[in-house]
Amino acid sequence: MIKLQGLHKAYGKHQVLKGIDLELPKGKVLAIIGPSGSGKTTLLRCLNLLEVPDKGAVQLGSVSLSFQEGVKLPFKDVLSLRKQSGMVFQSFNLFPHMTALENIVEAQVTVQKKSKHAAQLRARSLLEKVGLADKADSYPNRLSGGQQQRVAIARAMALEPEVLLFDEPTSALDPELVEEVLKVIKQLAAEGMTMVIVTHLMRFAAEVADHVILMDDGHIVEEGAPQEVFRQPKSSRAVQFLSRLAE
Amino acid sequence: MSDNQIQIITDSFWPLLKAGVVYTIPLTLISFTLGLVLAVITALVRLYAWDFLKPVARFYVWVIRGTPLLVQLFIIFYGLPSVGLTINPFLSAIIGFTLSVGAYGSEIVRAAIISIPKGQWEAAYSLGMTRWQALRRIILPQAARVTVPPLGNSFISLLKDTSLASAITYVEMFRRAQQDVARTYEPMLLYCEVALIYLLFSTVLSTLQNIVEKRLDRSSVS
Ligand SMILES: Nc1ncnc2c1ncn2[C@@H]1O[C@H](COP(=O)(O)OP(=O)(O)OP(=O)(O)O)[C@@H](O)[C@H]1O
Ligand SMILES: [Mg+2]
Q1: Which residue has the least CA distance to atom 5 on ligand 1?
Q2: Could you name the Gene Ontology cellular component terms for this entry (chain B) (predicted)?
Q3: What is the ipTM, given to two decimal places?
Q4: pTM (predicted TM-score)
Q5: What mean pLDDT is predicted for residues A63-86?
Q6: Domains of chain B, each with CATH number or no CATH
Q7: Least CA distance to B139: which residue of chain A?
């Protein structure tokens, strides 16, 4: 389902990803943890080409692309990879000039060329799934952070992507709103949605993930099932990172 | 004030107002509409077009903003005929004002587009939209709201600036007042009268502008 090989990314001279190899089967959940600045967001954004890798290969669903320095990818390929995933951002990024329903309808109509009616039907069922059926006609500024993020999750699922990508989906939320978003994500995991989740919440990662990777300075320094990574970390960097969290 | 002066004021009021409604306002509306189209195109070219087009747009904005509108109108109306291009006063005025709104407006539109947070682009891209789809559906509608106050001001400025068309013999409201002055020798009265009519027009427009802004604020987005 997801396969990364030798992924490199630099901003100018600053190497941020220094060769990432990774595989995730369909229906599994991957949690990415690690200290700030280790490259977690960059890795996630390389999966849908919001950042284009310098080197390496990305396979997502049925599309695989390889990257070489100085070779520009045809935009058609960029789009086809992007359509394999949906992304949920830390700061929601809902379209403020559209209602919750319109946010979810939008790409179905402009990108998928679905009829408005069919798009609305799907949007309503997605809103129901995230527990916001009654907020269909609300604008984002009338919704709480937790509600906005749930709409954003519904929007990310609107095009039936193979994979959902989350970048710290709860870190912009007030503590009392975190749980309602986590609940939706856990429910999706239980339904067999393939997901990649960057998070600082270790307990949540342990609970929801099938596979955890710990990043440090552009490398994966530890990976495995949550019990292994959290209980018996092998690398010294992982031991250090996890013990600092435990304090 | 003599009876005769009062007579002159009342006699000229309706014809002046009519000149305003029939000539000044259409001139403003047409130039502004065309100017807006030009402004959006210019802003988009400066931001997103092929590199060879960007300097063309920058040059246009630089020239228009750096020279007096009156001089531009003179070049169009009095200058172009000597290179074989004769344009009637009305069209000359439209061209001059459109170019002006296009240049100043493009800066407003460009600033508004730039002000939309990067996350909006990223959300659109992550849904598989192309740049043009993201612009049209996500960015421009939000940018349009940002431009309402400054463009409202441009519109009111333009309404007043159309009086410059009098200098290229287009008989709009101010030139009509000049003609009345030539007939009656009452410059103080008539110029104050026409000033009052401009004031009336721009006050109505400011009020409209306030209403629109309040509406937008209420359905506001951030
Ligand atoms: N657009 C950019 N231009 C230049 N440098 C960048 C850019 N984005 C990220 N970086 C740098 O790349 C490194 C990795 O950033 P990244 O956002 O991937 O880290 P992260 O692991 O997500 O951190 P955090 O936990 O703080 O979100 C950081 O040093 C950051 O400063
Ligand atoms: Mg990050």
Answers
A1: A11
A2: ATP-binding cassette (ABC) transporter complex
A3: 0.95
A4: 0.90
A5: 93
A6: 3-221 (1.10.3720.10)
A7: A95
